Amino acid sequence: MIPFQCRLQSLFRLSAVMLIGLHVLQPVYAQNTPPAEPPVPEVVEESAEEKGDWQAEFNTWFSENINGPLGSVLFAPVPFIATDKVTEGGEPVLDADGTQEKNQIPLIVMVLVLGGIFFTFRYGFINVRLFSHAINVIRGKYDKKDDKGEITHFQALTSALSATVGLGNIAGVAIAISLGGPGAVFWMWTTAFFGMTMKFNSCTLAHLYRRVGEDGHVQGGPMIYLEEGLKDVNPSLAWLGKLFALVFAVFMVMAAFGAGNLFQVNQTASVIEMLFFDND
Questions:
Q1: pTM
Q2: Distance separating alpha carbons of residues 102 and 78, to the nearest angstrom
Q3: What distance in Å separates the CA atoms of residue 238 and residue 244, rounded to the nearest whole number?
Q4: Bridge partner list, 218
């Protein structure tokens, strides 16, 4: 296992050196070999079907058949909670029909915010009271070799952070500020404060209903406690718990391919294309 990790690290270092070298040498070649002025081609716009662009066709199909129906439910505007949309000068913003647009709160945002506020007050601001205890847990103060589990508390934390830092805490924050302005930072802080209790609630349920096999392998997460928890509360709801667990697992697979892989690969490829293959 160790020789394989060494070879993998060497491959990563070699790839990094090659990319840095290409980036450094590109301006040199560009200065020594001035490009000839290409003729200006006539721009003819073609549809995705005419160009045979299967990626555009797939994006259109996915947007119309999957993103559209899901978005209409998850981001449905909450009724009776809306304000008039105006410009910085106070002028009303009108749509194509001449009707003033409204600032509305999506359903999923309302559910998350109300859920975080409820759990925070229900647990007596446990995100503040047990913050020092959480630090001690991460430091390994309560670690025991005989405890069940495959990883330490610190390893569990870093594993969770690897799936959130970057896509959520960097890209998501940048998009929020670009769309909502600096004021979005305050609301992100506010929702994060109450969201800490929601995360604590989810992790506690995952730990409470986790499954430990005979070989010590651990299974846990929402797909487990949704099934086991509802069955524990009311055995007649066992079928509903299995349905929720199945739906969560399906959405998690879609998120892993989309946000976890496709989005990051797309961003990486875009940066490489911009640095090394952009002729503009």
A1: 0.65
A2: 12
A3: 10
A4: 212
